[in-house]
């Protein structure tokens, strides 16, 4: 987990190889309290300047679906060329509340998925 300030936590995967169009990421998440807390799943691809361009694949804001129960999410990664990363981002806009991501697995990722994503994020 990489912390950058008191209101944001990032959990980035290693760099992945090519994946086909059926590739999905499956994970469980939990969020309690904090009316404006958000969990996002981003895909990062390298840019010509040597950094990373970020695109959102999935997001949930605590006030839209607040629950004390664990929820399951399955998100399509889609076809990707080698060199991309995945990133969980937790944004805590109000100090109350907690967010967590756990039990991250991949489904139907036939090509190039050789690394295991870090297992959990608690913020």
Q: Can you give a write-up of this model?
A:
There is one protein chain. With 123 residues, the protein is mainly beta. It has one domain (2-122): Jelly Rolls (Sandwich), CATH 2.60.120. 3% of the residues lie in helices and 53% in strands. The chain is built from one helix and nine strands; from the N terminus they run βββββαββββ. The chain has one helix spanning 62-65, and strands at residues 2-3, 8-12, 24-32, 38-46, 52-61, 67-76, 85-91, 98-107, 120-122. The chain has a five-stranded antiparallel sheet. The chain has a four-stranded antiparallel sheet with strand order 6-3-8-9, with no helix packed on it. Strand 4 (38-46) and strand 5 form a beta hairpin. The chain is globular, with a radius of gyration of 14 Å.
Tell me the span between the first and last alpha carbons: 10 Å
- Kindly provide the radius of gyration, computed on alpha-carbon positions and rounded to a whole number of angstroms: 14 Å
How many helices in DSSP terms? 1
Spans of at least 5 consecutive residues whose pLDDT stays below 50 are 1-5, 114-123
CATH class: Mainly Beta
**Mean pLDDT across all residues, rounded?**
79
Total count of strands: 9
CATH topology: Jelly Rolls
Number of domains: 1
């Amino acid at each position: 987990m990489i912390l950058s300030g008191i209101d944001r936590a990032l959990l980035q995967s290693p760099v992945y190889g090519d994946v086909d169009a059926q590739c999905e990421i499956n994970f469980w998440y939990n969020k309690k309290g904090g009316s404006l807390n958000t969990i996002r799943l981003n895909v990062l691809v390298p840019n010509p300047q040597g950094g990373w361009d970020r695109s959102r694949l999935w997001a949930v804001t605590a006030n839209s679906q607040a629950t004390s129960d664990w929820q399951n999410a399955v998100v399509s990664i889609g076809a990707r060329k080698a060199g991309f990363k995945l990133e969980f981002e937790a944004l805590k806009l109000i100090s109350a509340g907690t967010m967590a991501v756990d039990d991250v697995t991949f489904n139907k990722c036939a090509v190039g998925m050789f690394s295991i994503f870090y297992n959990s994020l608690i913020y």
